[in-house]
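As a warm-up, study this chain.
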Amino acid sequence: MILILSQSAMEPTTEEVMDWLTALGGRFLRLNGEDLDGDAALCFTIDGAETTLEIAADGVVLPLAEVGAVWFRRWLRERRHESASLLELPAALDHKLYYDLRRNLTFESRKLSDFLFARFAGLPWLSHPHRSGTTKLDVLTRAAQAGLDTPATLVTTERAALERFAARYGDVITKPIGEVDLFLEGERTHFMFTTVLGSAAVAALPERFAASLFQERLDKEYELRVFYLAGECHPMAIFSQADPRTQNDFRNYNRVRPNRMVPYRLRTETTERLCRLMADLELETGSLDLLQTRDGREVFLEVNPVGQFGMVSGPCNYHLEKKVAELLLRKDAHGR
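Now compare it with the structure written out below.
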C-alpha cells in the first residue's frame, strides 16, 4: 500500500499519478494536509502497538502497518488558518487572541504530522519532509560547489552595499530569500514576483532596510524548467522573453497568450552537475529552475523539492505521471 501525502484535494497532477497507480495494479490511500483541519472525517486509532487510519469519506480503514511506501507530494499550508472565524469578538479586541489561537492550531497539526512522519521512518519515501525545506542560499552555494554556473548574489541591509553591487553588474533583480508569497488586501492580491531594480529604484531605497536578496540581472534568451526524478533530468525551455509580461518572471502568467514551451536538451556537463547537486541535497525528485543567457551560459537558479511537474510532462510528452507511479510501485514492493 502506498500512502500519498498531499496538500489539498485540488492537485490534478497527483490525481493523474493515482490514475496510473490504479492502471498498474497498485494500492494507495491519499491523505491531504487540509484534512487535519476538518476538511475530511478521519480518525487515528492507537490500540496497543497497532495504529489505524480511517478516512470515512472513502470508507477506508487502513492499518498503518500495511503501508509499504510514502509519497510526500506536499502537506500543510502555512497560512491556512488566516481566514478562519474562531471567535465572536469586537474587531478592536480580537487581533492578538486570533493570532495566538491560529498559532496553536498550527502547532497542533505540526505535532500530529510529526507523529505521522515518524510512524513511517523506516519505509521508502519519495521526497521526505525533512529534506523538502531547502534554503535558496544554501542550494546556490552547493550548486556552485557542484560546478554549476550561478548568478552573482548579494544579501544586504545597506543601500551603499547594493549600490556597489549594482555599479559592478548594472541593473539587478530582487526576489524573496525564502518562498514566493502572496498577500491579500480586500479583493486585491499582491504577489512577490522577481523584480528588476534600476539605478533610480536603488537610489530611492532607505539607507537601511530588512535583509534582502539581490542578484545580477542576466540577459535571458529563454528559461529552463527541469524536473529531476531518480537520477534523470527532464528539461523544458520556456520562451518567456517573447512576452513583456513574463520577461522577468514567467510566473506572471499570460493566460490569454501563454509562453511557448518545448522539450530541451541540456549540455552533458550541466546534467551531470545537476545530478551531483541533487545527490548532495539527498533529493530524489525536484523542479529546478535555470536559464539560458544570450551569451550561451546555462545558469542554475533554484530548486523546489516538491515542485509541480505536470507543466513539464504535458508539453514535452515526458509522461512523468506514469514514471512517478512506477517508481512508487517499486518502492512499495521494496518496503514490503
